[in-house]
Specification:
The chain has 214 residues and is of the alpha+beta class. Helices cover 39% and strands 18% of the residues. The two termini are 33 Å apart.
């Protein structure tokens, strides 16, 4: 059964037996953290888009999509040669060179001027504006009052609720045995639900999951 944004907030307070103002105020953050975790943990084809980005020929920098979470692959076009990931300190050795890019890294916002989103950097720079193909893990869309449902809340509503409850349990002070048990219990239920969801993705895609002998 699909969960709406308001329905999820109600479910969190119902299952968490907590209707305090403090929890209510924290719900948007709790839900955002849970959504991010579920998307990263599921790692389904729906979260792994392929697109092209425009790379500056001098700096080797390119803006990333607004829903970018993590990089999976960087390829030259049209050759489809895969670039190797490297540290930025290593790539700086190619700062004065131009040629066919061979390496890539992500430049954090604190090391650039511009948007808060990290940027892609390739080295050596090609000397001319070029397109690079990237495969990345997509983040979002997120739940909000303006966006009451998402594919996560519709298809994986139980997993999302458990992830939210784990976040709530994480915020407890953990000083009692009950707090520790509750967090461990919810985490175990989340991991079980995650395994079931991943197996469902494998079956729906026609891939046969590996049989593990115990």
């Amino acid at each position: 059964m699909a969960l709406t944004y308001s329905g999820l907030k109600s479910a969190i307070t119902d299952w968490g037996w907590d209707e305090s103002a403090e929890l209510t105020a924290a719900l948007p953050t709790i839900i955002r953290l849970a959504e991010t975790r579920v998307v990263a943990d599921l790692d389904t084809p729906a979260t792994r888009p392929t697109t092209t980005v425009v790379v500056d020929g001098v700096t080797g920098l390119a803006e990333l999509p607004g829903d970018f979470l993590t990089m999976r692959a960087v390829r030259l076009t049209p050759s489809m040669v895969t670039l190797d990931g490297a540290r930025e300190s290593f790539m700086n050795l190619y700062a004065t060179e131009t040629g066919t890019p061979r390496y890539w890294c992500l430049v954090s916002p604190s090391m650039t001027t511009g948007p808060a989103m990290p940027r892609l950097k390739v080295a050596p720079a090609s000397g001319a504006v070029a397109e690079i193909e990237i495969v990345y893990t997509r983040l979002g869309p997120f739940l909000s009052d303006a966006n009451p449902t998402t594919w996560v809340s519709t298809i994986h509503d139980d997993l999302l609720l458990l992830a939210c409850l784990v976040e709530v349990a994480t915020r407890s002070d953990g000083t009692t045995t009950g707090d520790q048990f509750n967090h461990e219990h919810l985490e175990a239920r989340y991991q079980a639900a995650l395994a079931a969801a991943k197996q469902g993705e494998l079956l729906s895609s026609g891939r046969v999951p590996e049989v593990v002998k115990v």
